[in-house]
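Handout, section B. The chain below has 189 residues.
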Amino acid sequence: MSSFSTEQIQLSMYNTETGDRLKANVYTLENVVNVDGSPRLMSIGQLVMAICLQRAAGLEEQIIDLMEDMNENTVLLEDLTDIEQMIVDSGDSFNSAQTYVTKSGRTTTYAVFLQEAGVTTEAAGTWNAATIESVVSSIEDKMDSLNTISQEFLIQLQSLTAKRDQTYDLVSNILKSFNTVLIGNANNL
């Protein structure tokens, strides 16, 4: 989170009782600057809003990263589903040294892809019925694990989305408060 600092400035208004110039606190937030690069001076409301917007931007980045991870997980599940079906359809013999083109367009062999995906397999070559049964079982175990991870991703996504929405709600409420104060000030003039 960015750090902020407080500064007291003198206003152009005077205290009617003492004749002293009035003072106000202003705030600066790290990485929030004017066009000329100087630190932007903000009221407490503006500071809270800027902090909320920075938090929302950070949550957006986390959501995007999580969605990319979810997509990679989904693509891997699709590849494993296709390979499992091909192995099962092969009958009692499967040549795992055959070329396989992944959903992401990478060319490899079945055996190498499965090993990279974390599936326990025999060495590349022709697999017999017993080996096929073992590999299919390993693929199913890996797919179960990936499905569990997908569910965890969805829970994380819901949590991050809720936090982001709460942050934007807070910003909206601050803007409504600003609007109310401005209308009140305009009506008093």
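Note. The two ends are 40 Å apart (CA to CA). Compare this with the example in section A.
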